[in-house]
Amino acid sequence: MKTFPGGVTACLLLLASPSAPAAAPAPDRPAAKAAAEIDALLEAHWKANGVGRNPPIPDEVFVRRIYLDLAGRIPTGDEAAAFLRSTAPDKRAALIDALLAGESYVARFFHLWADVLRYKSRTVNRANVVEAVYGKYIRDSLRENKPYDRFVRDMLAARGYAWDNGAVGYYHRDPDMPLDNMAITSRVFLGTRIECAQCHDHPFDRWKQTEFYHLAAYTYGTKSVNEPFAAARAAIRAREEAIQADFLKEKAAAADGGKAAAERKKARLDAIETRGIAGVIKGCVGQLFSPVGLDRDLGRVLKLPHDFKEKDGKPFEAMKPATPMGPPAEVAPGQDPAAAFADWVASPKNPRFTRVVVNRLWREMFGVPLTEAFDDLHDDTKAMAPDVEAYLERLMVDHRYDMKFFLAAVANTRAYQSAVGREEFARGSAYHFTGPVLRRMSAEQLWDSVVALVSHEPDARDRDREARDERRVNVSKMAFEAYLAFDGEKLLDMAAARLVRERELAKRELAIREAMVVAKRTGDAERYRDLARQEGDISRERGEALAREFILPLLDNLAKKHGGPSAVAVPDPTYEVHSNPRILTSETWRRMHVPGYGPAPKTQAEKDAAAKAERERLAALAEKLGFAGADRAGFVAYCERGRGEWVRASELESPAPRGHFLRTMGQSDRDFVENANRTATIPQALLLLNSELMTEHGVLSPYSPLMAFVNRAGTPDERADGVFLALLARKPTPAERAAWGAASDRGHAVDALVHAILNTKQFAFVR
User: What is the pTM of this model?
Assistant: First the structure.
């Protein structure tokens, strides 16, 4: 266990920022004008309540706060130094605009919406194509600054296949559970906890059970699409019907009971054979696909439950779509009810839609929403600053739900650029927004701040992950359409042949395994090894046969339908197959390619060339940073080791697996809406004190951006200044400098200073 003297840590627990005059106001631009209006309303609110604005913050506090709030991480040493050196009068406003325009904004706010929408990149221990495209939809929406109302409308009206519309992932989060999904929708977008009315009239609010069912009727017809072999299903059904018809015909015509019994037995065997063939097809598909799209059954009718006991309805009564508040959402003849519902939810006329998003974004900047219980609104719910909230709602509507503009307006206010309130905000108490509240970093902010200390490209997208996701989506689309394009009867014939072949292989495999048991029992090691090789040969034979006799004909047919060559590109002849003999793996499909379904898989030569180009790029970066000779090679190795690991939290599996830094620090498990936790725990403290984050492979590596920045300094004092600047965006106070001088005199190195500051409250809090 790596430890440091308590004296270093103890003195740094008392870190305090020096005071400095506030920066000049932002220039005359729309966000600045809106900020001035917000400040004026807050000033009136403070005057009415006998409070005043907190003192303005100096640049060193502002730069760290704005990076954490808009970029989701601390600034690097170079970024902090550049901002502090600047004398531009509008540098704060310019930095706000730059952060909102960059990729760091996407990484930061992806987690807000991932928590709200309960997004998971994996479900039931497997990654589905829907999760991949849904995550991309959220990121792309943030990247292009899609208006919030359209962002929501796209999700609520979504239908079609995942590869055409990533927004279908919203409904797939609650697969084929329309009532539960409606409860989540009402809470997330309307701040209305109507879920209690699912079983009975709401005990604490005005909502009736019938109102919940009327609302749920809009989206009740939503269903998953997960069967790409419709033609095969029809052929199977026709074959089963033919078998049944023959059975009945023979039974009726038979005068001899023995003959009738024989025909009935044959019919049963034929039926079993048909089901076996169906199992081959379904098994192949089942390994490849979970639901890949959404459809809407417009004829599906929602009825009150059988145990309905309220006075305004009766059991099994059909519920027509109707809204419980605001203007009605009429469904035109032939219109998808979900589309009408989406328009109603995301309308500025909806009394709660705008209010919820205003409070959610304001809370991200101030730590406290204007309306404390904005996700549990009642008709009499009051905001803590009603005039401010009302203005912000108008601002959001007038600027067409532009989330970046809204955040820029809030960030430019004098109130936001004021010192934090250090009193702990208690639920039910009043807060007057004289400055943001002091709050602990989220798990993602902590992790991403560490990434900024370890990675020289902290905001880089994980292109490898993006390529894998794109390939997976293209493969799923290719396989899906390959089944759809194939004649059902031919598919049955192929499956029947595969069934016969598999039975042969299974019989041989069983005999080999029985012989292996005997060889092991008798101690015949050579015989056992030979039999094991034969078993492996059967597995390879199975994979080659599956690919040759089942997959390739499907893909050849698909290629012909696209007007391309019949030959399908197979970059790698080695096929990996599942241990279940009847199931093809998605890996088998990924090794094949039909033109028109994304780029072909890279050959080994292409992979080698890409790796070489990346090493050359890293070598150039090393030279730019001043690493030469053996250090240059060490730098390249350091970067290659961290590739895919030292990336923003938004680029990792979401949520992270149990035991990961993010989960230990309180990341949401995404089982519930906004289920993250910022409470400090002993395991968190132990992780920061002793984890590999602080080793020569992480923060303290001589190749890390932190240590490279620090080591550029000359004197020990300048190196200490670099540590403070990189971690806290400021230089040490005279008292801190004296404390460090005493510690360094006792033989403590810079790594002890880094370790100590990283374990202070000042590092872990948004100030």
Answer: 0.87
